[in-house]
Amino acid sequence: MEKQVIFESKNGKLFGVLHIPEKEISPGVIFFHGFTGNKCESHFLFTKLARKLCKEGISVLRFDFYGSGDSEGSFEDMSLETEMMDGESAVEYFRNLDFVDKDRIGILGLSMGAIIGVYVASKYKEVKALCLWSPLAFPSIIKRKLLTRKMVKKIKTYGKCYIPDFGHYIGKKFLNSIEKIKVNSYAENYKGNVFIIHTKDDKTVDLKNPIFYFDKFHKSAVNLKMLILNKGGHTFTTEESENKVIDETLNFFKECLNP
Q1: Which of 29, 39, 135, 144 would be 114's cystine partner, CB 3.0–4.6 Å?
Q2: Closest by CA position to 197, among listed 121, 128, 253
Q3: 193 sits in which H/E element
Q4: What is the pLDDT, as a whole number, of residue 214?
Q5: Superfamily of domain 2-138+183-257
Q6: Residues 91, 93, 98, 99: is their CA dihedral positive or negative?
C-alpha cells in the first residue's frame, strides 16, 4: 500500500509517501533525495526502488526536504542544517509508526542527501544499514560549480541570488552551510553496515567523494563495501546501471535488515 503523508519538522510541514507492506511489523528504509531533487528522484529511481522494497516486506518513507518538492518553504531558505533537521524529523516520525520495527531501520542517501544520511545514521543507533548513491562528501563543490564570484557577492549582500539555467534562488543560509559543514566525524562515528555505489562517468560528483567516505567508514563500520559502475552518470541513467543499482541496493537492505 502507498499512502501520502505529511509530518512536522522544525522548519515546516514535510510531504512524503509511505510504502507499507502487508505484514504487520516490518523493517524500514528512509530515502534522502539530492540537491534540487525530490521524493521521486531522477527517472523515478526512488519510486521504483521503494516499490520493490515494499514487495520484499520492507517499509519505505520517501519525502521532500523543506523547500523542495511539495513540502513547505522556499528553496532559497534551504540549507544543510535545515535538511539535517528534516532528516531527524523523518526518523522520529518513521520509527514511531506502528508497523515499523524501530530497531531495524535503513537509510538511503543520494548525492547531497548522502550528507544528511551519514549525519542521521551517526546519531541514531536504530540505523543498521546505510546506502549511499553518488555521495557528495565535499559540499563546497556546489559553490565552485554553480556560483561565480559576482553571484557569491550578491548572495552575501542581498541574501539570495537567482542562478541562470538552474531555476532556483540560492540563499545565504545554504552558502554558509556548505562552507562550514564537514562530514568527517559523522562518517567515523557510524558503526553499522555501509554500501556505497558510484559510477566512473559521474560528471557531477567525482570519485574522490566515495573514496573519502570509504576511508572514513573503514575505521568503524561493521560491514563495508563499495561498487563502482563503469557508466550511468550521477543518477544511473542507463538501463544497465539503473537495474544494477536497484537490485544491489535491494539485496543490501534485505540482508542487513531482515532477521
Answers
A1: 135
A2: 253
A3: strand 193-199
A4: 96
A5: Alpha/Beta hydrolase fold, catalytic domain (3.40.50.1820)
A6: negative
Domain ranges across the chain: 2-138+183-257, 140-180
d(CA 74, CA 72): 7
Euclidean distance between CA atoms 18 and 166, whole angstroms: 30
Q: How many whole angstroms separate alpha carbon 183 and alpha carbon 80? A: 11
Q: What is the pLDDT of residue 144?
A: 86
What pLDDT digit, counting tens, does each position of 69-90 carry?
999 999 999 999 999 999 999 9
pLDDT of residue 85: 98
- Please give the torsion angle defined by the CA atoms of residues 56, 227, 245 and 204, in that order, rounded to the nearest 10 degrees: 140
How many whole angstroms separate alpha carbon 232 and alpha carbon 240? 8
Closest Cα partner for 114 from 191, 11, 37?
Answer: 37
